[in-house]
Amino acid sequence: xxxxxxxxxxxxxxxxxxxxxxxxxxxxxxxxxxxxxxxxxxxxxxxxxxxxxxxxxxxxxxxxxxxxxxxxxxxxxxxxxxxxxxxxxxxxxxxxxxxxxxxxxxxxxxxxxxxxxxxxxxxxxxxxxxxxxxxxxxxxxxxxxxxxxxxxxxxxxxxxxxxxxxxxxxxxxxxxxxxxxxxxxxxxxxxxxxxxxxxxxxxxxxxxxxxxxxxxxxxxxxxxxxxxxxxxxxxxxxxxxxxxx
Length: 245
What we know:
The protein is mostly helical. The chain has helices spanning 2-10, 16-26, 44-57, 65-76, 109-119, 128-143, 180-194, 197-218, 223-244, and strands spanning 29-31, 36-38. It starts with a helix and ends with a helix.
């Protein structure tokens, strides 16, 4: 709208400032045979984590230069400053990741869990910085767990349903309640070994058990929820065995 308004105001698309803005917008366009779509943003951190996990699942050497380069880039982009999530989670230290290149006020649980899953499998010959980053990320992830056992995407305890019914509610989606898919993704990472159950046993079981209960009560409404829910169920059984040993 800003670009449109400026074009209407100036009436000259050759204006240098307007031309620059149009060129930036064009970077987000996806043009096909008969359609033109505009992405709201791009997802370099999410895409990098997915690519890393894919390579790791395929059996690549965990100290492969590609994984080392990607992991160090992700560590460089960890968010260590303040954000809106602190309104309801005041005591936690920052340590999450966002979806885009720069979105420092809005790290999210989804991306953080996937990044941690990718980083946790890397074998860096100089591991100090990597391990510190994983510890910070995991602490932030656990701190974002809601009282009902689940995780939302961006916020903590943002679940007052009556707000969806006020006249200016945006598509009836003003909240950020726990969801099965984000909860399962968080559990899959936690159970992948980032929390050492033999050292921390009961706290891990409490976090995992309450999260798994949330998945079961919420059900799986999408294929992604179903897939990650199965992973969450496996990790609950594994965690229970570990604590019992």
